[in-house]
């Protein structure tokens, strides 16, 4: 879950801490007040602050103001650089940088050349000496950006921010983490901890006063501008373990922008057959892109949105509208990609969608209603889907990570750097967890043996859980059988109809794969569905204990204690009685 990165820095009592999300597209800053996290708006009133720097006449602009300069001043505007931190030039993908300052190879170091200083001018403003452009390493760019970001937080809070918890994608390697910490340190920020993005999102939800700490499997879909990162997280006794992750650089926000850009460019050309294609001119393309993104965001709220650009191409103004249904149709293949990504990561974790208790949609693209609707089609109704369009109590997905980071920052701010190092040891991510459940066998009314789970699979160890189980009504001697358990998916086929019996060998997965093309948009084909449910299977017996003379209507308490070395101690006793049986496995 975390990386131990604190370094000798500010004394705990002198710290002012915030949470930072530093994305390729946008960044956010948050702080806590009375244990509640709040996202800070910068001087422009933005809570999602574009991760962009731009230089005009020697002045540095950041955020939304810098983004606007992508149209008029792209060469001196640096965007989409976060993922280059800690990487050699050879290993970066510069796809997203073609419309802004291009990354360059300076002895393997990713760098950008921008004119960040003004020319020397006389009193009339005439240039008397041109000042050369500067070549800035990605470290320098990130440092300058983080300095501005934290500067906004300091202005807002009225005191200098000293320290932060920063979120990182789950696939950031040590070099990338080190590079991020170095940039933050150079910007004057002590990094208390780096926490992974999905854990930050889960924390933001779990910290709500109404949240109950429960054992659960959570899928966090972090859908951003240039990348989508999905993780399966097991939350057991308040401890988070990442079970599987998937990363995709195709299905993300810019792919949706591209769909709208193409759509409106074609419409423009249809209306103005002799005009130049706006996609072939850098300035027109930049205008098209900015407006397409705005239209896309408007379509997340309303059923219709307008698109309007002055002088789009050849000096011709263009205005149009689009409704959500049309957008969802033209963007269908991108929108469906998110489902496949989420399904793949659940599978990678060795789980079934029925195992998933909660799906958290995080990141800007998660505002898209169709993505949430499509996901709701693959999960059972028992899975909580936390997205603004499907759940009114969902937290703004653009704010989740910064909030989680701020909450974590406020939790650990009182510790010395060395203690943070210890208590947030990197081992947390790779903590051992039990593969099978541990529980007891009970006999139901039909006389069948059933499994009652006590410790769930994927629980991080050490772990201790207790259950109370009703003894047979008559009381007497009770035999407690402690066993391993695992789940499997029971598929009940519908009663065969006269026609078209489903082939016995066709599994549900096969059926899903074949139906890729018709799944999400045609709700009308109401076919009888197979019923799928998760059932427990009793595995090997771990221990048996006899409890003598249980009272009529009495209960038996079973405690399972799994140690860090995976050894297990089981204690059983009658509730309310003294003594008990204890055994080590
Ligand atoms: P990445 O690192 O993947 O580039 P990020 O984490 O920096 O992304 P986010 O702010 O999470 O950035 O996501 C940005 C994306 O979310 C952009 O493509 C943006 O257009 C999109 N987005 C923001 N708000 C909305 C909205 N209301 N509806 C649809 N898309 C949105």
From TrEMBL:
- Renumbered to this chain, the Basic and acidic residues biased-composition regions fall at 493-503
Recorded hits in Gene3D superfamilies, A to Z, give: 3.30.30.30, 3.30.420.40, Actin, Chain A, domain 4
Provide GO CC annotations from the record: cytosol; nucleus
GO molecular-function term, one example from the UniProt record = ATP-dependent protein folding chaperone
Q: Where is the signal peptide?
A: none
In terms of Pfam families, this protein maps to: HSP70
The keyword Nucleotide-binding is assigned to this record = yes
**Keywords annotated in UniProt:** ATP-binding, Nucleotide-binding
Q: Which CDD domains match?
A: ASKHA_NBD_HSP70_ScSsz1p-like
Compositional bias per record (Acidic residues), positions renumbered to this chain? 509-530
Q: Where is this region: Disordered?
A: 493-535
Q: Which PANTHER family match?
A: HEAT SHOCK PROTEIN PDR13 (PTHR45639:SF32), HSC70CB, ISOFORM G-RELATED (PTHR45639)
What name is this protein filed under? Ribosome-associated complex subunit SSZ1
- Record the organism: Cladorrhinum samala
């Amino acid at each position: 879950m975390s990386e131990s990165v604190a370094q000798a820095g500010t004394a705990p009592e002198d710290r002012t801490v915030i949470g930072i999300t530093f994305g390729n597209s946008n960044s956010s800053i948050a702080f806590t007040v009375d244990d509640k996290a709040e996202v800070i708006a910068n001087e422009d009133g933005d809570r999602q602050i574009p991760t962009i720097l731009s230089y005009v006449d020697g002045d540095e602009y950041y955020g939304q103001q810098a983004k606007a300069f992508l149209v008029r001043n792209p060469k001196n505007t640096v965007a989409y650089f976060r993922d280059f931190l800690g990487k050699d030039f050879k290993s970066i993908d510069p796809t997203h940088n073609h419309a802004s300052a291009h990354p360059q190879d300076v002895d393997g170091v990713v760098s950008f050349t921008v004119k960040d200083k003004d020319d020397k001018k006389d009193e009339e403003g005439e240039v008397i000496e041109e000042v050369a452009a500067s070549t800035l390493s990605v470290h320098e760019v990130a440092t300058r950006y983080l300095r501005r970001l934290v500067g906004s937080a300091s202005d807002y809070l009225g005191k200098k921010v000293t320290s932060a918890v920063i979120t990182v994608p789950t696939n950031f390697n040590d070099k990338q983490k080190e590079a991020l910490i170095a940039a933050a340190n150079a910007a004057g920020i002590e990094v208390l901890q780096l926490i992974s993005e999905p854990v930050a999102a889960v924390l933001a939800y779990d910290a709500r006063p109404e949240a109950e700490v429960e054992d659960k499997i959570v899928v966090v879909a972090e859908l951003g501008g240039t990348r989508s990162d999905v993780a399966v997280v097991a939350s057991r006794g308040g401890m988070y373990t990442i079970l599987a992750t998937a990363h995709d650089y195709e299905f993300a926000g810019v792919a949706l922008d591209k769909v709208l850009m193409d759509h409106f460019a074609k419409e423009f050309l249809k209306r103005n057959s002799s005009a130049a294609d706006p996609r072939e001119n850098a300035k027109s393309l930049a205008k098209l892109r900015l407006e397409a993104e705005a239209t896309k965001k408007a379509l997340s709220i309303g059923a219709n949105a307008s698109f309007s650009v002055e002088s789009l191409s050849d000096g011709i103004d263009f205005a149009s509208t689009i409704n959500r249904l049309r957008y969802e149709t033209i963007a269908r293949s991108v929108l469906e990609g998110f489902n496949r990504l989420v399904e793949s990561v659940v599978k990678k974790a060795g789980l079934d969608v029925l195992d998933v208790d909660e799906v958290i949609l995080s990141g800007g693209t998660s505002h898209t209603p169709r993505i949430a609707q499509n996901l709701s089609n693959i999960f059972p109704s028992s899975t909580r889907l936390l997205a603004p369009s499907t759940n009114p109590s969902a937290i703004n997905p653009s704010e989740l990570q910064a909030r989680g980071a701020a909450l974590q920052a406020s939790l650990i701010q009182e510790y010395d750097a060395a203690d943070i190092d210890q208590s947030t040891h990197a081992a947390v991510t790779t903590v051992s967890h039990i593969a099978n459940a541990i529980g007891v066998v009970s006999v139901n009314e039909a006389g069948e043996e059933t499994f009652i789970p006590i410790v769930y699979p994927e629980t991080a160890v050490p772990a201790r859980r207790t259950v109370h189980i009703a003894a047979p009504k008559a009381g007497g001697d009770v035999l407690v059988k402690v066993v391993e358990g695992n789940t499997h998916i029971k598929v009940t086929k519908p009663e065969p109809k006269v026609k078209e019996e489903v082939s016995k060998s066709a599994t549900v997965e096969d059926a899903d794969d074949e139906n890729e093309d018709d799944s999400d948009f045609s709700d009308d084909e109401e076919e009888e569905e197979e019923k799928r449910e998760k059932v427990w299977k009793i595995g090997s017996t771990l221990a048996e204990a006899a409890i003598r003379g249980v009272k009529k209507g009495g209960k038996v308490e079973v405690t399972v204690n799994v140690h860090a070395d995976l050894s297990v101690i089981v204690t059983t006793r009658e509730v309310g009685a003294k003594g008990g049986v204890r055994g080590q496995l």
